[in-house]
Amino acid sequence: MTEIRRPRLLGVFAHPDDETFCAGGTLATYTERGAEAMVISATRGQAGQIRDAAQATRRTLAQIREQELRAACAVLGVEHVECFD
Predict the structure, then answer these.
(1) What does the pLDDT read at residue 77?
(2) Within a domain: residue 25?
(3) What is the number of structural domains in the chain?
(4) Residue 1 contacts by C-beta under 8 Å, 6 or more apart in sequence?
(5) pLDDT tens digits for 17-73?
(6) Domain for residue 2, yes or no?
(7) Residue 22 is part of which domain span?
(8) Could you tell me if residue 74 is inside a domain?
């Protein structure tokens, strides 16, 4: 008997938030239909802009951006998230 595997998606992006702006609709659509999704971010977003000093500092920015990435992926239905430095 042949096992039917669900479709898989892999999104590879340069920075956190690219997954949402570049492919958020696609990821959400396919995960809603049962696909397994993984997102890889090549950075933690540590070189990004800090628009609100109360939200992050240079020292904490990477951690904050990674948390935002993981939260966004949870909303999009992405099951696996990996960040590289």
Answers:
(1) 98
(2) yes
(3) 1
(4) none
(5) 999 999 999 999 999 999 999 999 999 999 888 888 888 889 999 999 999 999 999
(6) no
(7) 8-83
(8) yes
